[in-house]
Write a structure and sequence with these properties.
Layout (H helix, E strand, L loop, with lengths): L1 H12 L2 H15 L1 E12 L3 E12 L2 H21 L7 E11 L7 H7 L5 E12 L5 H9 L5 E8 L3 H26 L4 E13 L1 E4 L7 H11 L16 E13 L1
Antiparallel strand pairs: 1-8, 2-4, 2-5, 3-4, 5-7, 6-8
């Protein structure tokens, strides 16, 4: 009987422990403020990545490949004459595609078309890195005059991305601190120590381009317009403008 009488107070006290723990946790969570800060830095691009393509067609594979090789060689020779270093030029994609005719009315013709291609299509891509941004328009036009038919991608970038991201992050942190100060002071409290922090980045480049197919003149026009648009004072049709580097932080501060 004495043992039972001792256990009863203990059992009655146990249900109260979780409630007390929850009250303590809730109080701790209530004494914090979560804020986000973001910043954007505009910088001029100092390098451009181009991805261009050459496509040739012939009823026989050998002539199609030979013509493709000649056009690629002409494009590479033009880049060398333009002062683009060989380390900044790379042939990074090759495709040979036999195409078959499907709409013949003759059964015999259909049987032949399934095993004999009506044309061979040879495609090759060239990746180019330009560090002289002012040469972009002349290089693009010269490539189109020297064997290139397609512009698959144009990417305006900054080579100082790490430096600009660090600067944007510092501004984002300062914005988060100022926001936390405004919130807590308005409630008669003060911003305390940092409890948690996370960050994210974006930007540092601008990308545009097109896939295989289409009109090369339209691709040239769209690329130039997307690259910044407008006409500069010296009569050029390209204005590279600026690209954005952004940083965001989420910070939880204690409230004092």
């Amino acid at each position: 009987m004495k043992i039972a009488s001792l256990l009863l107070p203990i059992l009655l006290a146990c249900p109260l422990l979780p409630a007390a723990a929850q009250t303590h946790v809730g109080a701790a969570a209530a004494r914090s403020v979560n804020v986000s800060g973001s910043a954007e830095i505009k910088v001029a691009p100092d390098e451009i990545l181009l991805n261009v393509g050459v496509e040739t067609r012939d009823v026989e594979l050998a002539p199609a490949k030979r013509l493709n090789d000649e056009r690629v060689a002409a494009a590479l020779a033009f880049l060398a004459r333009s002062g683009v270093p060989s380390k900044d030029v790379q042939t990074d994609f090759v495709s040979i595609e036999p195409q078959f005719e499907d709409d013949d009315t003759s059964r015999a013709a259909r049987e032949r078309s399934r095993v004999t291609p009506v044309v061979y299509v040879v495609r090759k891509n060239i990746g180019i890195r330009l560090t002289r941004v002012g040469d972009y328009e002349a290089v693009l036009a010269g490539l189109l005059d020297n064997g290139v038919q397609y512009i698959h991608g144009v990417e305006f970038r900054t080579s100082q991305l790490r430096k600009h991201r660090d600067a944007a992050r510092a501004l984002a942190v300062q914005a988060a601190k100022e926001k936390a100060d405004a919130l807590t002071s308005g409630l008669g409290a003060r911003r305390g120590a940092v409890q948690s922090v996370s960050e994210s980045y974006a930007g540092g480049w601008w990308r545009g381009g097109a896939s295989w197919g289409g009109n090369r003149g339209q691709m040239m026009q769209n690329t130039v317009q997307n690259g910044g648009g407008g006409e500069s004072a010296d009569g050029a049709t390209l204005s590279v403008g600026q690209i954005s580097v952004t940083a965001s932080v989420d910070v939880t501060f204690a409230i004092e």
